Amino acid sequence: MFFTKELKVSNLTTKIAAVSCTLVIGPSMAFAAPAQECDVVIIGAGGAGISSAIALKEAGKQKVCLIEKMPFVGGATNLAATYFTVINTKEQQAAGKGQSIEKYLESKKKQNYPYDMDRLKEFSESSQEALDWVNKIGANITRPMSSYQMGTADGRSLGNALILAMKKKLDESGVVPMLSTKATKLVTKDGKITGVMTEGKDGEKLLKTNYVIVATGGYSSGQEVLKKFAPEWAGLPSTSAVGSTGDAVGLLEPLNAKFTHMDVLRLNPSVHSSNGQHYSLSAARAEGGIMVNAEGKRFCNDYFPDYTQLSKWMLAQPGGYAYIVIDDKAMQKSKRLQGFKAKGFFLEAPTIPELAKKMGVPEKNLVATVERYAGFVKNGKDEDFGRKHNLSLDFSMGPFYAVKTTP
């Protein structure tokens, strides 16, 4: 999105939250609702909004008003599954997983994906500072997973670790989020922002301010916004937060804000559905798991960085689904996977042939697939599909597990 004026607070806000502090311009309106004075209003208490609030308090802003339409904080960050994206940190270098920022950016260019390369470069260059900050506040993201991934030390869900640490820091800062409070309108007068109209449990309230941070950009759970900007993907299950319904669109469109890249979505190729709920099983691939189709065969680079393309390859398979297959070594590394195992998501067997029977795939094919892939891991090269990231699981430790997934 493009905004007209920035409120300079802290580079760390942009680096952690990837959100702009903005002065939004539009038509003026008058309200008689109860009012509250704020130095800054932040709309949305996900990872972006919380880190912005912390940075503003550290910059000396006293009246930071953080509002959240849901009855809890965290937003989509709560559901972040596996890894924190950073490049060439000292932790990765020490584990032999470093790569230059230049090499990383070049790899992204080759994907022919509509990245904002300037923002991606800034993001990459801030990797060490961002990682140091989240660990300073207690997130414990200390396990190098690849040349662009850091995971939690014990394999717990990334979002859980981040939001617990960030909420504690937010509480220490003195900012009390206004929960169950929805922003309904950005108010302006004479071409300048003057407030945010909200609706909460006690009715309407006007938050008077000259600055607003709109941290509600996610819309993958908002079917109407999806149909407008990315109709190709409308109707697919979402593993994002239920509150990610694209509120920023309704707030900013009346003010003639410029939206960019709204048609670019990143699909999740590892969604397991159970009892009407959708869960991201990407941790299984991140811990080295492979994807096989209904024939028990690999069909692509299981950890291709462009998850949308990976999802398209999966949809092209018989039935439009795939199984992620792992061994007990991967299971023991990840508390997230252990939690899903306890929920009954995984098929389990002491041998690969027995696992194939439970999956309903040809036993001979799955055995051959696993044995061939184990050889690639041993030699450090995937000769079939060129997988480079997380090429680590040799299936040497039973029992073995499989989980059915769709995009």
Write a concise keyword list for the protein shown above.
407 residues, alpha+beta, FAD/NAD(P)-binding domain, Flavocytochrome C3, Chain A, domain 1, 4-stranded mixed sheet, 4-stranded antiparallel sheet, 15 helices, 16 strands, elongated, disordered N terminus, FAD-oxidoreductase_2
Largest sheet: number of strands, sense, barrel closure: 4 strands, mixed
The CATH top-level class label of the largest domain: Alpha Beta
Measured as a percent range, the helix fraction is 25-40%
Q: What is the CATH topology assignment of the largest domain?
A: FAD/NAD(P)-binding domain
Quick structural gist:
This protein is α+β, with helices and mostly antiparallel strands and 407 residues long. It is 33% helix and 18% strand. Helix 1 runs antiparallel to helix 2, helix 2 (47-58) packs parallel to helix 7 (158-173) and helix 14 (352-359) packs across helix 15.
